[in-house]
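Proteins fold. Shown next:

***
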Amino acid sequence: MDPKALRDLTVDELREKHRQYKEELFNLRFQNAIGQLSNTSRIKEVRRTIARVLTVMHEKETASARTGVRG
């Protein structure tokens, strides 16, 4: 998922996406451990997507904290 699409989501939606991707990463790692995973590059993609989600979530939380203090 690209960062532009992530920035359009709310913080709650981002938390849900984070949960979904963490679950997918767990499943991918499990499949890799038992030898069922054919596309191992998907693990790297999901890890990067999780980092993107967390980055955008942090940006939104920081921006709302700044406006709350000054506003």
The mean pLDDT is 93. Residues 3 and 52 are 7 Å apart (CA to CA). The radius of gyration is 15 Å.
